[in-house]
Amino acid sequence: MGSVSGQVAARAKAVKILKKMPVLSGLQDKEYQTVLAMCSSTVVRKDQKLFNQGDDGSSMFILLSGEIDIIVEGVGTVHVMKAGEIVGEIGLVKNISRTAGAVTTQDCVLLQLYSEILHQVVKKQPRIGYIIMRNVARILADRLDQSNKASRKENEKNAALKNKTSSNKPEKAIKSKSA
Fold this sequence. Notes:
Largest sheet: 4 strands, antiparallel
Number of helices: 5
Number of strands: 8
Strand order of the largest sheet: 1-8-3-6
CATH superfamily: Jelly Rolls
């Protein structure tokens, strides 16, 4: 009986965390249980690869506890994922290779949601699918907006630097021919 009560407590804790997640914002109480049932749970120890850049990207991970570095090859760590965040959400929209890798920096408890399972549930409960996909679209749009702003800022910085270096160059005297 101890293990059953432990599982019930773990599910209750997971649902409490899920209710705080933007990707699930707007679900009704009973729908969180459905989402939890769609997910597989896993524990990944510290310093383990969750996935590599280029791996199959057909699922999303929900970090319930722990910390994960999101790493882009040639760039390094681009984000430190904390409890309550998601990674791989683009895999729910389009099955593409992972655009970054993920390595745990602490022991982690994760839920994994495969796009195939989500799409099966959506057929029976379209409201859940609509809400999740709407929220994923918002998250992706926010990340794209942040990326665009960072890119513009970097371009402005480079342009200012280029202008500064070109204004420091001595101008060549222009000789005019006299007739």
